[in-house]
Design brief:
3-stranded mixed β-sheet; HSP40/DNAj peptide-binding domain; alpha+beta; single chain; Helix Hairpins
Length: 338
C-alpha cells in the first residue's frame, strides 16, 4: 500500500525556513486549538486526528536531526527509499500500529515510521534527553523598543520578557500518563513574565539583533539555558524623523532671521546646540549638521538635517505692522528679475 507523503510545514502553517521559535509558536497555537479535551464528543475524533498530526509535525520539525533528514526527501520519497532506505527505517516496527489501527494520542503515522523507524519514535513523550542526551534550553527571541536617545547612549536597560519555563504540571515531559499534558497542550512548557537587565552597546541601529547568552529558556534535561535574542525597534520620536542613520528635524525661523542670517537653537539627541543660519535662507532648505545622527555599522554617526520653515509671529504690534508695510513697499519697488 502506498504511503502518503506528509507536508509537515503545511501542517503547522510555517515556511520551510521558519526559525525554531516560529515553529514552536505555530505548534502551540494549533495544539491549543485542536486539543481533544476542548471539543465536544461529536468532534473529538476529528480533533484527536488533527492533534496527532500537529504533534507529529512538531516532533520532526523541532528536532534538528529529524528535520534535516525530512528536508532531504520530497513527495517522491518512496521511490528513493526502494534503492536507498534511510537509516533506522525498516518494515519491522515492533510496538507500532498503523493509522487505521491506532485510536490513541501517542501513535505515529506510517509515513513517520517509514522515515524514522522504531528508534525515531520510542522516546517520544519521555523527554529530549532519552533520545539525544541533555540539551540546552530553548533560544528565545523578543523585541526591544528603544527611544532614539537610549539607542545612542546604550547602557543597562531593564525589560520584561515572556520566557518559556518547564510546564509545572508535566515538568517538561509533555505528557501526563498516556495523554498529552492538557496544561501546556503537549508543548512541555508555559510562559511567564521575567525581568532581565540588558547591557546595550552605544549607537544601536534599528533592526539590530543582540544576543544575551544564558538568558533564554531553561533546560528540562539538566543542560544550561538557551540564549535570548533581542531585535531592536526604534520608537517614533516627536522631534526627529529617521532615515537610516540620518535624522531630520524641522527648524522654525522668523522672516528677518532667514533674510539677515542668525544663530538659531537646534534640538539634537544630546541636547540643543546653536547653529548659524546663512542670510537669504529660503523655506525648505536643509541645513546639515554632521555627526549628530544615529550610529553606523563602522562606529561613526550619521548626520542631522534641519529643514527650515519660515514662521510668522502670532501677534504683532503697531511698529511691526509698519515695518512689514515698508518691507512690502520696498519689495514692490524692486521686483525680482524674471
Amino acid at each position: 500500500m502506498a504511503i502518503e507523503y506528509k507536508d509537515y510545514y503545511a501542517v503547522l502553517g510555517v515556511r520551510k525556513d521558519a526559525s525554531v521559535p516560529e515553529i514552536k509558536g505555530a505548534y502551540r497555537r494549533l495544539a491549543k486549538r485542536h486539543h481533544p479535551d476542548l471539543h465536544p464528543d461529536k468532534d473529538k475524533a476529528r480533533a484527536t486526528a488533527k492533534f496527532k498530526e500537529i504533534n507529529e509535525a512538531y516532533e520532526v520539525l523541532s528536532d534538528p536531526q529529524k528535520k534535516a533528514k525530512y528536508d532531504q526527501i520530497g513527495p517522491g520519497w518512496e521511490a528513493a527509499q526502494e534503492s536507498s532506505p534511510p537509516p533506522g527505517a525498516g518494515t519491522a516496527r515492533r510496538g507500532f500500529r498503523t493509522d487505521e489501527q491506532d485510536d490513541s494520542l501517542d501513535g505515529f503515522s506510517r509515513f513517520f515510521e517509514s522515515l524514522f523507524g522504531e528508534a525515531g519514535a520510542q522516546g517520544f513523550g519521555r523527554g529530549e534527553a532519552f533520545r539525544r542526551g541533555p540539551r540546552k534550553g530553548q533560544d528565545v527571541e523578543a523585541e526591544m523598543a528603544l527611544s532614539l536617545e537610549d539607542a545612542l547612549r546604550g547602557g543597562d536597560k531593564k525589560i520584561s520578557i515572556l520566557a518559556a519555563v518547564p510546564c509545572p504540571a508535566c515538568r517538561g515531559s509533555r505528557r501526563q500518563g498516556n495523554r498529552f499534558c492538557p496544561a501546556c497542550a503537549g508543548a512541555g512548557e508555559t510562559r511567564q513574565e521575567r525581568p532581565i537587565t540588558a547591557h546595550l552597546p552605544k549607537n544601536i541601529r534599528d533592526g539590530m539583533r543582540l544576543r544575551l547568552r544564558g538568558q533564554g529558556g531553561p533546560s528540562s534535561s539538566g543542560a544550561g539555558p538557551g540564549d535570548l535574542f533581542l531585535r531592536i525597534r526604534l520608537l517614533p520620536h516627536p522631534a526627529f524623523k529617521v532615515s537610516g542613520s540620518d535624522l531630520e528635524t524641522t527648524l522654525a525661523v522668523m522672516p528677518w532671521e532667514a533674510a539677515l542670517g542668525a544663530k538659531i537653537e537646534v534640538p539634537t539627541l544630546e541636547g540643543p546646540i546653536r547653529i548659524r543660519i546663512p542670510p537669504g535662507t529660503h523655506s525648505g532648505r536643509r541645513l546639515r549638521i554632521a555627526g549628530k545622527g544615529l550610529g553606523k555599522e563602522d562606529g561613526s554617526r550619521g548626520d542631522l538635517f534641519a529643514a527650515v520653515r519660515i514662521d510668522i509671529p502670532d501677534k504683532t504690534n503697531d511698529r511691526m505692522e509698519r515695518l512689514y508695510r515698508e518691507l512690502r513697499e520696498a519689495a514692490a519697488a524692486h521686483p525680482k528679475a524674471p
